[in-house]
Amino acid sequence: MITENNLSENEEKKDSQDVSHEETSENTVSQDENVHEEDTEHEEEHEDVDISLADALKEMEKIINAPNAGENSKKFNQLKEKANHQIHDEVEDKKHEYVDAGNAPENFSYEHPLQARFSALVNIFKEKYDTYQKGQEEEQKKNLEHRQNIIERLKNLYTNSEPGVNLFKSIREIKEDWSKAGQVAKSEFRILNNNYFHHLNQFYQMLDLNKEFLEQEYSHNLEKRQHIIQRAKELEHEPVIQKALNELQYLHKLWKEEAEPVAEEFREKTWEEFKEISNKIHERKSELSAAIESEQNANLEKKNQIIAEIKKLSEPSETPNHNYWQNSIKRVEDLRAEFLKTGSVPRKLSNQNWNDFKTTLRGFNTTKNTYYKSLKGSQQANLEEKLKLIQTAKDNQNNEEWDIAVPLFKKLQEDWKKVGHVPKSMTNKIWDEFRDACNAFFNNYREKSNASTDNWKENYKNKKTLLDELKTVSNEEGSIEKIEAIKTAWNNIGKVPRDKISINTEFNKTLREKLKLNKINELELKEEGLSENQLTDKARKIKSQISDLEAEIVKLENNLAFFKKPSRENPMLKDTFDSIDEKKAHLETLKQNLHSIIAGE
Q: Composition bias, kind Basic and acidic residues: at what positions (predicted)?
């Protein structure tokens, strides 16, 4: 009589043979699965497409901001390589332009505007990846201990199981726990997996395993195999071939880990059916290869058209002007971005296509630089003409023959406006020289013209009274209006004796102290009685401060852009938002003052 805990020798021998045959089948599945994995990896190579530098940095930032950034290290490193490659290429382009302009290569110095952001993203990801790796190691240790406990339960099931134990239910629970257990370190997995299947086979061969349980187990696993085969048949008609290959690989994994053993009469039959379907699906790879080849050829044609258009822009049919080159520069930037966004081309032509693109791009830059280099000749002539005007102004700045000198300086100013552009590096320098010479002349002209009517001593007395009044101003309400009134009155008073001129320095020092006390900038003061030169000087200073404030605001807003969702509620960002608001308010006030000066209000 056969009981739950007793099997005949024949059944034991039969089970042993079955397990041996099943192991052979498992090895076959394992080998086939490895082939499928290699195929999938091979297909994934074709997913690589070109991407612009800006888009690569955006994708890197998305990965960093994801909850589990460390899981995407492969994709992040691919994007990092692409971004680094493009930054290097763009720096090389700048170097070519620099050398083409006639400069020595060893003097070249350039930092890519996106280099700092790129480096910051790489450093942030490294920190997150290190944290992720530590967490993975801890998780793998826990999973290893859990899997070892499962193996121990399996071992006890066939060595120490008590009478009445439901073996079918127990082995189902163990196999389900094993399939759900998390990953362990690669160095531990092979030994651990072999150990598990060894004890699983031992369980199937144990002497007290009855025939009824074995039939239940065979039936359950056969049902799993049939489900896998049915899903594989459906994959034959899956329109997305890559998706079919990926899911087929998963089905092979299920077959190996969860669909064994089955009764002997179904083993070869089910495996051959599954293998035949798998082979049919893999035969469709030729369709995928053809689709990839067609897409890559289309990409190659599109990229070659881009190269041809850039080459055409480099060789204008008519003599180009400044507007032509400015429009062409913008168009080439658009074409460059389009080239980088276009997908991959056939691998054997990839390097040649990329080199053609870079060569054509550099050819465009060389031709453009040659044009602007030719402009330097006319700019140099303009510079020489303006230098002559400066020299004439300096020679006559002390001329007191007003009937001759005044019309002369007005004519010099008109001629200055008519002369064309000069080299950018000299623009500010020569303008300052010319303006200073003209100011010196007109200041002398006004001083001598008004000397007979000015009562300098009376002026000093009035200025002394205003200075004393300014010293009493505090920071109470209405103080700013008092300061503006004092400053306006001061501007309307003429010159003082030369030995008393230090009162001007004392007044300006006291004014700065009172402005600081009332937290107001001198350029924001509403004042009247300024001369034309004073108004011009004040306008220039306001323009300079506006430019500085705008740069500071842009810098602060760029810093906020590094955060995924910047908000005032974030304590770390509150000061930054407040600073931006303060600077924008100051900027608006300066713009209004500049408008008032220009409008003559």
A: 10-24
Which of 157, 184, 209 is a domain's end point? 209
d(CA 433, CA 424): 15
253 with 336, same domain: the answer is yes
pLDDT in tens, 64-118: 888 888 888 888 898 898 888 888 888 888 887 777 777 787 888 888 888 888 8
- What tokens appear for 562 in the block? 């590094």
| 137 and 169 together in one domain | yes
359 token code pair: 């060569």
- Residue range 249-263: mean pLDDT, rounded: 80
Picking from 209, 230, 263, the residue at the C-terminal end of a domain is 209
State whether 194 and 263 are in the same domain. Answer: no
Nearest by Cα to 307 from 343, 330, 340, 347: 340
Q: Same domain for 273 and 165? A: no
| Separation of alpha carbons 241 and 288, rounded Å | 6
Segments forming the whole domain that contains residue 574: 530-600
- 8 Å CB contact between 369 and 328: no
Closest among 372, 376, 361 to 322, alpha carbons compared: 372
Q: Tens of pLDDT along 184-210? A: 888 888 888 888 888 888 777 764 456
Query: Are residues 84 and 233 located together in one domain of the fold?
Result: no
Same domain assignment for residues 155 and 244: no
* Whole-number Å distance between alpha carbons of 148 and 166: 22
Residue 307 identity (one-letter amino acid): I
Q: How many domains does the chain have?
A: 3
- CA dist 592 → 541, 575, 584 (Å): 14, 26, 12
SS (H, E, C) 378-437: HHHHHHHHHHHHHHHHHHHCCCCCHHHHHHHHHHHHHHHHHCCCCCHHHHHHHHHHHHHH
Closest Cα partner for 169 from 157, 184, 187, 181?
157
Between the alpha carbon of residue 187 and those of residues 74, 145, 184, 190, the distances in Å are 20, 14, 8, 7
Same domain, 240 and 196: no
- pLDDT above 90 coverage of the chain, percent: 1
Inter-CA distances, 527 with 471, 489, 490, 531, 534, Å: 18, 9, 10, 11, 11
Give the residue with greater pLDDT, 132 vs 31: 132
Q: What is the C-alpha separation between 172 and 163, in angstroms, rounded?
A: 18
Domain-embedded: residue 135: yes
Least confident of 71-80, 433-442, 576-585: 576-585
